[in-house]
Structure formats: C-alpha cells, structure tokens
DNA sequence: AGCACGCCGACT
DNA sequence: GTCGGCGTGCTC
C-alpha cells in the first residue's frame, strides 16, 4: 500500500529477510457471533521496523481494526491469534486503526474477556459488544484508487480510477468486490472531532456582489434646469452624500419624493454603484468571532451595541460576509475530581493478598481506609480501576476517591453511561495515553486500558446490578477477577456487606454503623383475624395494622409532629400486586406471561411487569360477572395513599420506575415522607431522615432463588448505612421476625456474621462458592417442545459423564410462560470452573430442537 | 444482530 | 398466478 497518508503501522516495505507468515488474527466484531479469523493486512508480516529476525510480527492484540463484513467495513477488536492457516481462504484485515504501542484495550484484558466468553460458551462478539462501550464508531477519512496498472472496467463503469478518490463515492459492496480481488489501494486517516463555527470572511474573499451598493450622489455643477426645491435638495445631498435611496434622500432633505425624483431626472444627482463599507456586524465578527451559530452572532453583536437581528445575520451570511468553517472541537467537560482528602498517605493496613475484601462501616469510612492503598499504588506510577454497580455507588466512590489522583501525580477519570459518547471517548483517550491512572466507573470501565494496572476494586460485589441484562448476561465481578488475574493486579472487594462468594478470601471488616431497629412481627398478632374494610381485608393479621402497622404509624406521626423526614420502602411499584374477584377468586392474568397483572390505580390499568402488556381494568369479573375487585399486595401507590390518609397535609413524595417526584425540597431538608421501591437507594438519603420503614420485608424472601436471603440482608445493611452520619430508626414489618438475615442486625453483629453463616449452609447444599453454577435456558413457543429439548440436553449431559449431583432439572421456569414462550431450565453444578466448562461442551456437540442459552453464574429467579 | 433463502396461506 | 409470514443458516 502506498499513498500520501499511509496508515500508521505500515511503512514502505524494506528488502525483507526470509520470514514466516504471520498467523491469522482473531477479530471480535460487535455482533452476537464468534470472533472470526482474518489475515493480517497486506504487507504486515514484511514490515516490522523494530525487528529484523525471521519472526512474523505479532498480532496487534487489543487494537481496533477495520475488517470486511458482509460487503462493508466494520470495526473489530483483535482478541487473539487465529488457528494456523486452514483450508478456509481468509479475508484480509483492511486497516489497523490503533497504534499497537497504545492499543484500544490492554492486550491482557482482551485475552481475559475472550477467554471468559469461551468458558461461558458465549460468542466473543456478544460479550465484547456488551462490555466495550466506546470505540466501535471510528471516524476516518477513506480514500481509494485502483492498484496502479490494474483495470477495474470489469466491475462496472463507475469504479475507482488511478487518482485517489473519497470512498463514499462508491457503493461499499462494489469496493469490497474489488478489494477481494486485491485490486484496490486504500488509505485511511483518523478524523478528529470538529464543530462548525461562523467566521468573518476576509474582505478579499467576500463576493463583489455582496459588497456593491447603489448610492445617490450630487452632481456639480448643478444643471441650470433645476427648480428651487430641486436645487435645495441637491445642496443638501452634496453635504450628506452618499444616500442609499431616493426616499432616504427626500426624507433627509425635507422634500417630497417627487422633488427628489425630479432632481435625479434633471441630472442634479446620479445613481452610482459603489463598493460599500463592510457592515459593522461583520467587523464585530472579525474582532470577536468565531461565533457558534447565527443566533450567537446576532445576540453577541447586539449585546455589544451593534444591532443585528437573526434574519439580518442570515442575510449577511448568505451573501458571503460570513463563512462556516470546521474547527477542532475542544475537549468535552468531564467530571471534576473531588478535593483531596486528608489522610491519603496514612499507613496502609489492608491485606496484601491477591484477592481481599473490605466491608462494613459506611461508604465514606471504607473509602478512608482504602485511600492509602490506592494513593500508594498511584504514587508508584501504577494504575487503579474502581468499578461500581450503579450510579449512586459510583457517585460516592468519585466523591471519596477521585481526589487522590492529583496528589499522587496523575488524573482521575470517570467512565459510565451517565457521560455522553464524546465524553467517554475523550476519557478513554486519556486513559490509553497513561494520563489518567485512576479510573472510576461502571462496568463500562472494566475494559479500560489502564496503564500498569495494580489493583481492581469491585464495589458492592454482591449487587445484582452487576448482572448485565443484555445478551451476554455477564456478571461483572466474574470478569473483573479475570481481568485482574491476567495482569497480575490485586482484586479488592469493597462494600457494605460481602457476597457469600467473597467469604473465603482474607479481609478486613469495619464496625457496623449505629442502628436503631424495630421489628413489627405480623406473625404474632392476637388470635382471631378480623375482617376489615375493603383495602385491608384478608392480609390483615389481627389488629397490628396493615399495610402500615400501628407501630409504624405512630412513628410516622412523630415524624410529622417534629417536622422530620421519613422514607418507606415498598416491595413493588403500582397499587397492588394483583386484583382478585371476591366472588370467584379469579385474578386477571397477562396474555403473554403466566403472571398476575399488576394494578396501577393512577393510570387505571392492569400491567404486566414482565412484558409490559397492559389493559384497562375490566368492568366486571370474566368468571362470575362480579363488579368489584379486591386489591392484594400493596405497592408504592397504595402505601403513599395510606400515608396521605394517616398524615393529612404532610407532603408525600414517590420514587419508582413509574414516577420520580422532584425531591429538591426533601433534599433541602423540608419535612415529608418519601415512598418508593429499592430505586430509593440510588438517591442520596434525605438530610433530615428520622425513619426508614420496610413495609413488607417478606417479599424479598419469597423469591425462588438461593440468594434471596442474602439479597434481603444486603438491602437491610444498605438501608442502615444509607444516611452518611445519622442512624435513622429502621422499622421492618415482616411475618418472619426471626429470620437470621434480620436478626444479625438486631443483635448488632458485623457485616461478616450473616454471609459467614450462609456460606456454611451453602457448603452443605453444594452451592456457590462451593460449586460453580450455569443455567441452561431452553425456550420454545410450545411448552412440550422446550421440555423435550431440555430433557434431551439432560440425557446428553448424563451420557457425557455428568453426575446426578451436577445436573438439576429440567424444570419449567418459575414463570412458566414469558412473552409468549416457554422457558425450561437446566442447572449445572460443578466443583470447578474447568469442570463446568467441560460439561458445557456438550452444548456444542450437536444442534437442539429449541433455542438454547447459557447463563454462567445465574442470579435472580426471574 | 441482520440478511438471505425457502416453504406454505390470503389476495391484486 | 403473486405477496408475505417467520424458521433456518451464515457471516472470516
């Protein structure tokens, strides 16, 4: 390849020593397909400036490349070396986008993620598409020509010639056909980010037509034929010339326009075409410009005393006084680091193990303990990556840690979906060039090319938010383990409470935050359940009060009296979990899924929380024609309504997926009650918080998932440390007041108590961390088809030597029908990752009669 | 994922 | 006679 702008890694070929051919490259494209092999670009193995021996150049691992894909060029990531050249004739990589000395992704990370994808039996492209959030959209100028001496007439009439031409002039498929024959020369040049601005065009470049004006000037000597009035007008004109128009002249001279016309016709004045003075707004733009837009020009000029309307600005620009030019865009604004905390250089008392944990206390306290370690590593010139599961944790981490970077001689960079694409791209560049060595972000930061990575911190490693909802269903902490291990970096698990899986690692624990806990035990009411009014019938066990117990109501009234703040956590959004006919017990169901429809009172709708299907509330019961419904299982709407009845006149706010009230007053310290779902924890705690109520804790336990109680315990711990200083009263209403996940809090035990107990249970039951799980999901439109395919799969597994302990199921999904399909689940349970991967190879042994999907390390029932 | 190919029901 | 449903297969 040659040309004016040869791409970075390619130089003119030198007289080559005998060389082995380079291996193919394995390239992941952002599609749910495996990584495919491509040949290196033409000439790649001939031209390594750094090396003269008979070795092929290595694959540019972690670099982005352009590869031909279905007749077009797509961005791919080099994730490994391909198999030795097989029978398949490989297409060539067209271009390497990144300089191999600063790859887009750290080569070790590229391998770690790809290896995980292989172990999970997922296509590499699917995993990379999920995890690499920035870089797939490369902006480049692309020019083509025919290879010198080649004739492209066989490809048609509109084909590249011998001169370089912009590739957009040709159909991608045509170019690819020529490319495949080796007859296309191509050059690529990266395009920087630009913006369009308005500048004042230099006078010499303003079109002459724009500058010319017709003006009136007096003629001297004055013709003798002028009337007295015409003469006076001409005298005035000679003192005030040039005049732009007859009417302006007449007005100025104080005569009628007839007199002026007459004077002109009599030869007392002439119309001349002259070069005008540039308009003042042009001069303004030349001095103060460039302007971002027409309106910016108009307002800017007007503000500094040069009146300019938007239409005038438009006219001037159209006539050529201003030009639109592309200028390099300035770097986007990125989040500012927090001020430096004191104590960063304090002694570091944290474990030195390869994997360790730090839990308990409050977030700020954990970051204070963590800071000396991070500071030390940064000061040594190494890199640190901090991963948070959601925005609230990310914000706290940024506040608590980002200040360390400046003091340790580097920068902190934030990477999350909160930022714009442009911001993320800019930040990625800073990280890639080693300018920012402290990276704090969401899962999108996991593949960031952090220089000399020494430590990966996973915050709240047990959080379900780490389970990616999209195709790969990856659990981010699993990948963080791999990323850290391949780079010999340590892994720290830091959060309010350790995941049960973290317990085997060494660690530190901070004392639990102060807690005032009150448990309302619904299971121990006086005998004789008593029938109440409609909204509080069956579920009311005795007279404890439902859904707000008398105890909770009493504290809520105190909150109102004292002008404080309270938060109520409801287990679901909407008004109620379901509607039931009091006559025949019929419950409206979703038409696509086997679940009851949720009742939303505000929209008067029944909605499926699985698939989004909704309908208006039926007038009468399908089964018996009854006209009234009974609501069961209170949600946020119901709770908020009860609070409104209990505390008349007291502000009630709501926060869930359906409704996000403006919480400015509450965050400013004004009194009120906030009712919401778990989404509440994504907000800072209101400053005057005196009470947190959990309206029905049992909902977190009634989930068919072995992690349900762990999740419930984590929720309680997070609520307990939510407020950064205070210890609000935590009121938990439950039918299971003796549940150990709750009891350890009541007993003031530390963050390890419950996970440690749970780990012992898991050991007996052969569950994580003592086993590795993978769920195989088999789905089909007919239940029987899915069931039979799942059974065949199970038989194949047993045939391949799986034991009865290793294969659980198949069983229908907890929701038997979802979005119109029937999922069946098969759980694999192995001693080790390698055994699990070995069992999973059975999936690839043949094709199955239903859709099969693997979820390694599944979490959550639904 | 997208896009082709391919085989069976309701219509200009 | 065709248009169009989505099942299956392929992408280096």
From TrEMBL:
<feature type="binding site">
    <location>
        <position position="624"/>
    </location>
    <ligand>
        <name>Zn(2+) 1</name>
    </ligand>
</feature>
<keyword id="KW-0235">DNA replication</keyword>
<keyword id="KW-0479">Metal-binding</keyword>
<feature type="binding site">
    <location>
        <position position="608"/>
    </location>
    <ligand>
        <name>Zn(2+) 2</name>
    </ligand>
</feature>
<comment type="function">
    <text>Initiates the restart of stalled replication forks, which reloads the replicative helicase on sites other than the origin of replication. Recognizes and binds to abandoned replication forks and remodels them to uncover a helicase loading site. Promotes assembly of the primosome at these replication forks.</text>
</comment>
<dbReference type="InterPro" id="IPR041222">
    <property type="entry name" value="PriA_3primeBD"/>
</dbReference>
<feature type="binding site">
    <location>
        <position position="590"/>
    </location>
    <ligand>
        <name>Zn(2+) 2</name>
    </ligand>
</feature>
<feature type="binding site">
    <location>
        <position position="593"/>
    </location>
    <ligand>
        <name>Zn(2+) 2</name>
    </ligand>
</feature>
<dbReference type="Pfam" id="PF17764">
    <property type="entry name" value="PriA_3primeBD"/>
</dbReference>
<feature type="binding site">
    <location>
        <position position="611"/>
    </location>
    <ligand>
        <name>Zn(2+) 2</name>
    </ligand>
</feature>
<dbReference type="Pfam" id="PF18319">
    <property type="entry name" value="Zn_ribbon_PriA"/>
</dbReference>
<feature type="region of interest" description="Disordered">
    <location>
        <begin position="1"/>
        <end position="21"/>
    </location>
</feature>
<feature type="binding site">
    <location>
        <position position="621"/>
    </location>
    <ligand>
        <name>Zn(2+) 1</name>
    </ligand>
</feature>
<dbReference type="InterPro" id="IPR040498">
    <property type="entry name" value="PriA_CRR"/>
</dbReference>
<comment type="similarity">
    <text>Belongs to the helicase family. PriA subfamily.</text>
</comment>
<dbReference type="InterPro" id="IPR041236">
    <property type="entry name" value="PriA_C"/>
</dbReference>
<keyword id="KW-0639">Primosome</keyword>
<keyword id="KW-0067">ATP-binding</keyword>
<keyword id="KW-0547">Nucleotide-binding</keyword>
<dbReference type="InterPro" id="IPR005259">
    <property type="entry name" value="PriA"/>
</dbReference>
<dbReference type="Pfam" id="PF18074">
    <property type="entry name" value="PriA_C"/>
</dbReference>
<keyword id="KW-0862">Zinc</keyword>
<feature type="binding site">
    <location>
        <position position="584"/>
    </location>
    <ligand>
        <name>Zn(2+) 1</name>
    </ligand>
</feature>
<feature type="domain" description="Primosomal protein N C-terminal">
    <location>
        <begin position="769"/>
        <end position="858"/>
    </location>
</feature>
<protein>
    <recommendedName>
        <fullName>Probable replication restart protein PriA</fullName>
    </recommendedName>
</protein>
<dbReference type="InterPro" id="IPR027417">
    <property type="entry name" value="P-loop_NTPase"/>
</dbReference>
<feature type="domain" description="PriA DNA helicase Cys-rich region (CRR)">
    <location>
        <begin position="590"/>
        <end position="615"/>
    </location>
</feature>
<comment type="subunit">
    <text>Component of the replication restart primosome.</text>
</comment>
<feature type="binding site">
    <location>
        <position position="581"/>
    </location>
    <ligand>
        <name>Zn(2+) 1</name>
    </ligand>
</feature>
<keyword id="KW-0238">DNA-binding</keyword>
<feature type="domain" description="Primosomal protein N' 3' DNA-binding">
    <location>
        <begin position="27"/>
        <end position="127"/>
    </location>
</feature>
């Amino acid at each position: 390849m040659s040309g004016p702008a040869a791409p970075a890694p390619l130089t003119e070929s030198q007289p080559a020593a005998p060389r082995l051919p380079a291996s193919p490259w394995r390239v992941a494209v952002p599609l749910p397909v495996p990584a495919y092999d491509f040949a290196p670009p033409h000439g790649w193995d001939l031209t390594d400036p750094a090396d003269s021996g008979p070795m092929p150049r290595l694959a540019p691992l972690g670099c982005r490349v352009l590869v031909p894909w279905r007749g077009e060029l797509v961005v791919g990531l080099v994730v490994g070396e391909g198999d030795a050249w097989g029978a398949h004739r490989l297409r060539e990589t067209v271009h390497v986008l990144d300089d191999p000395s600063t790859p887009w992704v750290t080569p070790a990370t590229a391998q770690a993620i790809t290896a995980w994808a292989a172990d999970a039996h997922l296509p590499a492209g699917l995993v990379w598409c999920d995890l690499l959030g920035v870089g797939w959209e490369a902006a480049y100028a692309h020019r083509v020509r025919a290879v010198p001496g080649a004739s492209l007439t066989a490809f048609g009439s509109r084909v590249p010639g011998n001169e370089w031409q912009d590739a957009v002039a040709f159909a991608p498929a045509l170019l690819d056909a020529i490319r495949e024959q080796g007859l296309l020369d191509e050059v690529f040049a990266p395009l920087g980010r630009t913006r369009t601005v308005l500048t004042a065009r230099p006078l010499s470049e303003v079109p002459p037509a724009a500058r010319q004006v017709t003006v009136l000037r007096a003629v001297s000597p004055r013709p003798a034929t002028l009337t007295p009035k015409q003469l006076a007008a001409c005298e005035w004109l000679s003192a005030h010339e040039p005049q732009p128009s007859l009417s302006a002249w007449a007005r100025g001279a104080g005569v009628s326009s007839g007199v002026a016309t007459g004077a002109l016709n009599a030869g007392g004045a002439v119309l001349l075409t002259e070069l005008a003075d540039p308009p003042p707004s042009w001069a303004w733009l030349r001095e103060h410009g460039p302007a971002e837009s027409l309106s910016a020009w108009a307002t800017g000029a007007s503000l500094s005393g040069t009146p300019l309307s938007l239409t005038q600005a438009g006219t001037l620009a159209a006539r050529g006084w201003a030009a639109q030019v592309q200028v390099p865009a300035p770097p986007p604004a990125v989040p500012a680091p927090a001020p430096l905390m004191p104590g960063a250089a304090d002694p570091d008392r944290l474990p030195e193990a390869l994997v360790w944990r730090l839990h308990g206390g409050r977030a700020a306290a954990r970051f204070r303990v963590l800071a000396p370690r991070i500071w030390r590593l940064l000061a040594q010139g190494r890199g640190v990556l901090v991963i948070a599961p959601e925005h609230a944790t990310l914000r706290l981490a940024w506040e608590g840690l980002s200040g360390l970077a400046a003091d340790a001689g580097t920068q902190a960079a934030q990477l999350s979906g909160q930022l714009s694409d442009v911001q993320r791209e800019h930040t990625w560049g800073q990280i890639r060039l080693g300018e920012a060595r402290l990276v704090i972000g969401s899962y999108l930061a996991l593949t960031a090319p952090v220089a000399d990575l020494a430590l990966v911190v996973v915050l709240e490693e047990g959080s379900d938010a780490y389970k990616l909802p999209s195709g790969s269903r990856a659990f981010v902490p699993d990948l963080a383990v791999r990323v850290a291990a391949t780079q010999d970096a340590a892994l720290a698990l830091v959060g309010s409470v350790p995941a049960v899986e973290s317990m085997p690692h060494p660690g530190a624990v901070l004392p639990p935050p102060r807690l005032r806990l009150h448990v309302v035990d619904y299971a121990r009411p006086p005998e004789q359940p008593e029938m109440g009014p409609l909204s509080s019938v069956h579920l009311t066990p005795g007279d404890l009060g439902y859904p707000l117990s008398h105890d909770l109501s009493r504290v809520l009234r105190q909150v109102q009296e004292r002008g404080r703040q309270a938060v109520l956590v409801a287990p679901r959004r909407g008004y109620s979990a379901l509607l039931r006919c009091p006559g025949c017990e019929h419950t409206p169901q979703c038409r696509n899924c086997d679940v009851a429809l949720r009742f939303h009172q505000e929209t008067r709708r029944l909605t499926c929380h699985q698939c989004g299907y909704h309908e208006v509330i039926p007038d009468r019961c399908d089964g018996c024609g009854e006209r009234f419904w009974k609501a069961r299982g209170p949600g946020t709407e119901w709770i908020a309504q009860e609070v409104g009845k209990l505390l008349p006149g007291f502000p009630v706010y709501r926060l869930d997926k359906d409704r996000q009230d403006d919480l400015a007053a509450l965050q400013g310290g004004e009194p009120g009650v906030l009712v919401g779902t778990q989404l509440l924890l994504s907000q800072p705690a209101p400053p005057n918080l005196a009470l947190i109520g959990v309206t029905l804790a049992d909902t977190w336990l009634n989930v068919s998932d072995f992690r349900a109680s762990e999740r419930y315990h984590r929720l309680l711990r997070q609520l307990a440390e939510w407020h950064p200083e205070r210890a609000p009263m935590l009121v938990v209403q439950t039918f299971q007041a003796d549940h150990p996940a709750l009891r350890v809090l009541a007993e003031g035990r530390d963050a390890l108590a419950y996970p440690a107990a749970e780990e012992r249970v898991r050991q007996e039951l052969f569950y994580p961390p003592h086993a590795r799980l993978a769920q195989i999901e088999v789905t089909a439109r007919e239940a029987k088809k899915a069931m039979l395919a799942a059974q065949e799969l199970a038989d194949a597994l047993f045939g391949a030597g799986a034991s009865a302990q290793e294969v659980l199921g198949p069983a229908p999904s907890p929701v038997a029908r979802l979005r119109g399909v029937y999922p069946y689940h098969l759980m694999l349970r192995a001693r080790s990752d390698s055994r699990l991967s070995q069992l999973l190879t059975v999936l690839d042994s043949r094709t199955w009669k239903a859709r099969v999907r693997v979820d390694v390390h599944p979490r959550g029932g639904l």
